[in-house]
């Protein structure tokens, strides 16, 4: 049992946890800035950029993927501004048109291009590739100390570990500027902080998390983890530091519980079939948020204040 878990489940479980944490950290600040749907927007925009980057370079390296995603984001900004000015409609409507249009274009490119052989297709883009991230060289838990076995770890795990480490480091280094510009942008600008650059850096950090996670976990987890763990944590406390800590706990627990339920839950119910790990992880994250909406301490305080 232990050897099977290490070989078949350990690496996808760790990859899911790292992807969830990498998305949840910038998601905290997006939630507080009332830009929660920016994560959804990023996941829609990066799809055509990633596909075009692969078609141009023939590579699935993170650098090429991030460049494609950044180019797609730039095109999206230009299109939003053009539609807003020419059509004279509100920015929210222009964003909706551009994001859904780009995502549809990305799905069309996936269907029409020859990318299925490199695991870049609609199924992997939406649901991810967690179940296939097996560690064939692992024999048991002792393989964690075996350099030869470690050299054969799935590259998605290493990529997500590096991405999560970078995002954690950036969050620590820019904690004060992020905190000030999030809660009082006017004061932050008055003391000389580059609030526009900070906002752009936050969006680019979110894009980095989305691009790194896209191939391994798919857009479903990316969208859910940008919003659900930070929103759940927000209902637990008024402290930003504790909120970020809670969001990491909720992200990791949703990934762990969701993956285990997807793989082993149906068997416990007598079924021979597993369910999508990405879908179950997103479902658990949504259930956490629903429970927090009903039971969280901050939610009860808000309700008591309104009744009074």
TrEMBL record:
Topology versus the membrane: Multi-pass membrane protein
Keyword annotations: Cell membrane, Membrane, Transmembrane, Transmembrane helix, Transport
Family matches, as InterPro entries: ABC_BtuC-like (IPR037294), ABC_TroCD (IPR001626)
Domain of life: Bacteria
Transmembrane helix is among the record's keywords: yes
Major subcellular location class: membrane
Compartments where found: Cell membrane
Transmembrane segments: 6-25, 37-56, 62-80, 92-110, 157-175, 187-210, 216-237, 244-262, 274-296
Keyword Cell membrane set for record: yes
PANTHER family: ABC-TRANSPORTER METAL-BINDING PROTEIN, METAL TRANSPORT SYSTEM MEMBRANE PROTEIN CT_070-RELATED
Family: Belongs to the ABC-3 integral membrane protein family.
Identification of the protein by name: Metal ABC transporter permease
Organism: Pannonibacter tanglangensis
Classification lineage: Bacteria, Pseudomonadati, Pseudomonadota, Alphaproteobacteria, Hyphomicrobiales
